[in-house]
Amino acid sequence: MGEKGFHPTLAFQVWDNVFTPEELDRIEAYGDTLTQMWGSVSYDGPADQQKQDDIRVVREAVMPPKPEILWLYNALERVIRTINKQVWQFDLYGFSEPFKYMVYHGSDRGHFDWHADNGVLDNPRKLSASLQLTDGVTYEGCDLEIHGGYPMLAAPRERGALIVFPSYVLHRVTPIRAGTRKALVLWSTGPQFR
């Protein structure tokens, strides 16, 4: 994994091939062993399942930093710190939350409407990242779109692409029309912005 040239003016940064195909298979196989639950959302409206489904439909599993997966945490922390140093230079603590393994199924019409990841948290999220685990040619729709300015941009769909962006940037996952998309999402935290 070598150093990359990044483009500080873009809303997000991409690092291709952070992991080998065998390592991606290993991540996906491990994720598939985890207990998946329906993802939920936080909003100020009434507890209405239809409203929740309008915002977000995804199966997710928590991937805590257990010994068998620490290699993944360590590798992603190195990459996130490298990108941050070259682009944003935010003050970061590291990962204060476990990774999430996300699965969008065409049969569920999976999606996640426009949102930002930097809600009110004890350890504010500063950088969000999504590791693409599924080759984009195997599913329809389900684009990660990032609206950090004009124009809105779609993230790469190639397997193994790591997409990193500030957690305050609006983004969404468009509805999946067919197939299955898997991704690993994570957040690097730090002190409040000043």
Please explain how this structure is put together.
With 194 residues, the protein is α+β, with helices and mostly antiparallel strands. The longest helix is centred in the middle third of the chain and has 17 residues, at 70-86. The chain has a domain at 90-157 and 187-191. The protein starts with 12 loop residues before the first strand and ends in a 5-residue tail after the last strand. A 7-stranded antiparallel β-sheet has the order 1-11-7-14-5-4-2, with helices on one face. Strands 3-6-12-9-10 form a 5-stranded antiparallel β-sheet. It has a two-stranded antiparallel sheet with strand order 8-13. It has helices spanning 21-33, 49-55, 70-86, and strands at residues 13-15, 37-38, 56-57, 59-63, 99-105, 111-115, 125-132, 140-141, 144-147, 153-154, 162-166, 170-173, 176-178, 180-189. 19% of the residues lie in helices and 32% in strands. The model has no long low-confidence stretch (mean pLDDT 90). It is built from 3 helices and 14 strands.
Helix/strand/pairing category? alpha+beta
What integer is the average pLDDT?
A: 90
| Rg over CA atoms | 16 Å
Q: Hey, roughly how much beta strand do the residues contain?
A: 25-35%
Calculate the terminal CA-CA distance, rounded to whole Å: 33 Å
Low-confidence stretches: none
Order of helices and strands: EHEHEEHEEEEEEEEEE
Largest sheet: 7 strands, antiparallel
Strand order of the largest sheet: 1-11-7-14-5-4-2
